[in-house]
Amino acid sequence: MIKQRLSPLALGTAALSAALLAGCTPPTTSLDDAAPFTPKQLRLVERELGGKVAGEPQKCLPSSRNFDTIRVSDTMLIYRASGKLVYRNDLRGSCPGLARDSDVMVVRQFGSQSCAGDFFHLVDRSSGIRGPTCILGEFTPYRRPDEKGS
């Protein structure tokens, strides 16, 4: 067996390459593949989306409503309009630290609506240090079915 010694530079380059390649893997946020969610996150998703029917994804949220923003994971937000209507947003990539719900979300929107492609960043409450920049995806509405005939 031939052993080859790698220089510290080669080892560092290999480690950096592996980290960069791992970062290129798109996040999994499908409810069908529940591995990325903790049991607490799954309960939250079930509470907010359970019994509701998904509609066609929308580019922007209606500006005429106020929404409660719920942080589900580092890749998913839910915007609650009411008990009957919520919007699921799968971010365009991971937003490290979002699920902790301890940092402040500073949203930069262009225009009067929140739209896919708008970005926000996290800011540490105590130190004021700015964290990662994150990008919103499309907004998928989930509505409670009409109880009169559906």
Radius of gyration: 19 Å
- How big a fraction of the residues is strand? 25-35%
What's the overall geometry? globular
* Structural domain tally: 1
Query: How many separate helices?
Result: 2
- Uncertain regions spanning at least 5 consecutive residues: 1-35
Total beta strands: 8
N-to-C SSE string, H for helix and E for strand: HHEEEEEEEE
Within the largest sheet, what's the order of strands? 1-8-4-3-2
Structural class: alpha+beta
N-to-C span: 70 Å
On the 0 to 100 scale, the average pLDDT is 80
Largest beta-sheet characterization: 5 strands, antiparallel
Task: Please give the share of residues in helix.
Answer: 10-25%
In short, what is this structure?
By secondary structure, this protein is an alpha+beta fold.
Description:
The protein has 150 residues and is α+β, with helices and mostly antiparallel strands. It has one domain (32-143). The chain has 2 helices and 8 strands, in the order ααββββββββ. The protein has helices spanning 8-23, 39-49; strands at residues 53-54, 68-71, 76-80, 85-90, 104-108, 119-123, 130-135, 139-143. A 5-stranded antiparallel beta sheet has the order 1-8-4-3-2, with no helix packed on it. The protein has a 3-stranded antiparallel beta sheet with strand order 5-6-7, with no helix packed on it. A hairpin with a 4-residue loop joins strand 2 and strand 3 (76-80). The longest helix is centred in the first third of the chain and has 16 residues, at 8-23. The model is unreliable at 1-35 (pLDDT under 50).
